[in-house]
Amino acid sequence: MIEWGYEPIIASNGSEALNILLEPNAPRLAVLDWRMPHLEGPEICQQIRDQGSNKPYTYVIILTARGGADDFQTAITAGADEFVTKPVKEVDLKLRLANGVRLVELHDELAIAKKEIARLTLQLDKRSLASSGSR
């Protein structure tokens, strides 16, 4: 991943991974193994999603040896963006990470646009109040 331009942060267990992903300047892409000590990938993902819009969006890829439909449903329901079965091909992971970068950038652009819309709406409301008060 380093040769693709990413800076991996390795956690020794699920609790450590969750703490890293809940930090103020947390990574925006997460590749989580399904099976980790203390917390499993879907549990971590669910806790990240439970933060709601209080923090920037984290794109989550769950890696697993599990490949059943129920496993896929569990991961996606927990909020995973991708569900990848092992062994994963290098090109597949590279493309999924690039897709994650694109989605995170779009999410950031949307957040900026929402703030601008709110600012402009407030300006319009103030003008509307000012003009109705002068009548």
What does this molecule look like?
The chain has 135 residues and is mainly α. The chain has a single domain, classed as Rossmann fold (3-Layer(aba) Sandwich), CATH 3.40.50. It is 52% helix and 11% strand. The chain contains 4 helices and 3 strands; from the N terminus they run αβαβαβα. Strands 1-2-3 form a 3-stranded parallel β-sheet, sandwiched between helices. Helix 1 (14-21) runs parallel beside helix 2 (41-49) and helix 2 (41-49) runs parallel beside helix 3. It is elongated and about 70 Å long. The model has no long low-confidence stretch (mean pLDDT 92).
* Relevant CATH superfamily: Response regulator
Structural class: mainly alpha
Q: What percent of the residues sit in helical stretches (DSSP H or I)?
A: 40-55%
Number of helical stretches of at least 4 residues: 4
